[in-house]
Amino acid sequence: MSTEFTLGAGGYTAVVTARAAALRVLQFEGRDLIVPFPKGGPIPDYRGVIAAPWPNRIADGAYVFDGNKHQLPINEPERETALHGLAFPLDWTLKESDAGSLTLSCTVGPTAGYPFVLELESRFALDEAGLHTSVTARNAADVAAPYGVCPHPYLVAGSSVLDEWVLEFTADSFLEVTPDRLLPVGVMGVEGHAFDFRSPRTIGSTEIDHAFTGITFDGGLARLSLRDPAGTGVGMSWDTSCPWLQIHTADKPEPVPSRIGLAVEPMTCPPDAFNSGTDLIRLEPGAEHTASWSIYAL
Q1: How far is CA 215 from CA 53, 221, 227, 229, 282, in A?
Q2: Are the CB atoms for 238 and 293 separated by under 8 Å?
Q3: Residue range 229-271, pLDDT digits in tens
Q4: What are the pLDDT digits (tens) for 23-72?
Q5: Are 193 and 255 in contact (CB under 8 A)?
Q6: I need a labelling partner for 209 at 20 to 30 A (CA). Which of 57, 86, 97, 257 fits?
Q7: pLDDT, tens digit, 9 for 90 and up, residues 102-161
Q8: How many Cβ atoms are within 10 Å of 168's Cβ, its own excluded?
Q9: How many domains does the chain have?
Q10: CA–CA separation, 126 vs 295, rounded Å?
Q11: What is the pLDDT of residues 154-190, one digit of tens each?
Q12: Pairing of strands 68-71, 50-51
């Protein structure tokens, strides 16, 4: 059974597992703000994990970096991709904690397809404004390393079904993907498209599993709101380290429960960035990168 840690402050409760540094529970005054998963069991659908050293998927698990070809294990066989990085199967180590904050760390690599060494540190802190998370990566090797990161929470606005939730986030473009493998095709504008949520709009039956960009950062932060018609809601903000945002309506074939939460994933780079190079972080030896985001009740 994986170790877990409970935090509390400002009416919020958070439970983080050592496995994958995953956010298992986040509640405000007893109300779920994310889709939880059972204690001690497997983590379904990457719920709440830290996806590093890449977010989303890499086509064929293959890429070239600094002239060297690399082949990662395929962990999404139905699409022949390497999905959500290498940190999620790992047990992270407790560095420090108190009633309202927690810092976990792990080392990624060297391993098959990723002959680099990154030291990752994830800090979770609760206060009256919500849960604030940051992930810092440091290159602990003597060669440069490719890197990207994102969180993977499934947000819950309230007791109504997802189709009735009202979504708003200010992104003017999205990444069109192939229908079978969800690999990038090209960037398209949201104007006149079902993916335009620049003004608050009910999600309805729209199915989304796409990355968005052209995001508006106001005072260094981008914001997303998700509201239930009954009056509750959840919000998420993130800093300029994440110019991409993956949104997924969690559609599943029967009889698996479908559309039970909205995956909201601020990303430092788009899908398949290890191949496209788009916004891919190049971490030089000894260099660090930090990305931050927050989740809060509305």
Answers
A1: 22, 10, 20, 26, 22
A2: yes
A3: 999 999 999 999 999 999 999 999 989 889 999 999 999 999 9
A4: 999 999 999 999 999 999 899 999 999 999 999 999 999 999 999 999 99
A5: no
A6: 86
A7: 999 999 999 999 999 999 999 999 999 999 999 999 999 999 999 999 999 999 999 999
A8: 15
A9: 1
A10: 10
A11: 999 999 999 999 999 999 999 999 999 999 999 999 9
A12: unpaired
Domain of residue 234, residue span = 4-297
Residue 62, Cα to own-chain centre: how many angstroms? 22
| Ranges assigned E (strand) in 170-284 | 171-177, 184-189, 201-202, 209-215, 221-227, 233-239, 244-248, 262-267, 281-283
Whole-number pLDDT of residue 17: 97
Tell me how far apart the alpha carbons of residues 256 and 79 are, in angstroms, rounded to a whole number.
19
Query: How many other C-beta atoms are found inside a 10 Å radius of the C-beta of residue 166?
Result: 17
Dihedral (C-alpha) 4, 268, 246, 8: value to the nearest 10 degrees? 30
Q: Looking at residue 133, which CATH number applies to its domain?
A: 2.70.98.10
Query: How much is the average pLDDT of 183-212?
Result: 97
Residue 213's closest CA among 280, 261, 165, 268? Answer: 268
What Rg do the C-alpha atoms of the chain give, in angstroms? Answer: 18
